[in-house]
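# nightly structure sweep
# worker-07 picked up a monomer target from the shared queue
# config: single-sequence mode, recycle default, output format = structure tokens
# input follows
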Amino acid sequence: MLTGKTNEEKIWNYLTAAGLNACGTAGLMGNLYVESGLIPTNLQNTYEKKLGYTDAAYTAAVDSGAYDNFAKDSAGYGLAQWTYHTRKAALLAFAKAAGKSVGDLETQLAFLVKELRESFKLVHYVLVTATDVKTASNVVLLQFEKPADQSAAAKERRAGYGQIYYNRYAKGDTMTEQEARAKVVSIAQSYIGCKESDGSHKKIIDLYNSHKPLARGYAVKYTDAWCSTFASAVAIAAGLTGIIPTECGCEKHIALFKALGSWQENDAYVPAPGDYIFYDWQDGTNYADTDNTGAADHVGIVEKVSGQTITVIEGNYSNAVKRRTLAVNGRYIRGYGVPKYGSGTASAAPAAPAQTAKPTVTEKKAAEAARSLDKTLAGTYAVNAASGLHIRSGAGTSKASLAVLPNGTKVRNYGYYTLSGGVKWLYVQVTYNGVTYTGFMSSQYLRKQ
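# output follows
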């Protein structure tokens, strides 16, 4: 049984209950985070376009049998990004035997523990007995995940994430300001070299577009300018969107930093790693003595400051992720987004405020849309899914998503529903971000108020 409010908390609790010690659990979770972001429905980004599926569509197609090449398509999938055909086939068989979706979090954790105990006994032994996170992380990297990149840098990165989980759960701490800044910089560094010419920048765009709600409701195209998109994607990957706003345009990005009270207007400010630096290419020659208040053209993430030299990692720098160096108070600096890393809210986005539904849907409309009526179901429900829940045009995960509603959002049902896959999909209405939606939501992830 899963316990906890977020995926990472549920995973930590499950693995420790299964006998892994704190260092072993942390080392394993650091690797899982790098592989999938701890998202059980994660389809390897490079295969989404190749196969023509999103994470949700791929999962639904595998579950329904509409897609029958799950085991042999060579696409990484799930928490551990299972790829090898025998392991994927075993995962699918395990899920079917349990009567669960192949993308179900608890099912994947149970399968993961089963693999460790039966097929990776040495790895399991280390995860049960490890006395430090790095040892546990390295055995997972080298003998369980076995990615192409097994470099010293990869080891440090994965062990670093593992240490964050250890500090958060074994020690009961949230990330310190220094840890949060280091996490942002580490993620930015991991994208260096991604570029448009070979399409490797697409995973950055995909990550940005996967985060809901999208800024201004706009899905970024692969051909769009993507500097703010990159800066936002790093925040998403770090799980720090509560203190680092997401946007795809520099001016809007600045406005959001200002709204959070996290904007530094002084061009001569000496930044710290993890700060966001904005540029205006029209800055004048008297830049050292004036404050640039022009329109921003570009943004990057401060990697380090050495004396009076700032090193920045930027997306869409000559169509790639590259480093730039410039002087403190140098020309073109527009200002800085300075996230409140030490505020105690850095580890995750704050819970979205509950939205009050404004019921205007008519009984006739509900009756026409849904297939069944049970008046005992009528009432107000709250979304009970840490990562949010889709409201769809019809019943079932194959139907088009109208929006992703955050955890805690309140919706209204009038008793109408449609069965899909043995699950009641409630016909609901909600007003969210000023837009009124009517559609279907899975009752599995709704809690009656």
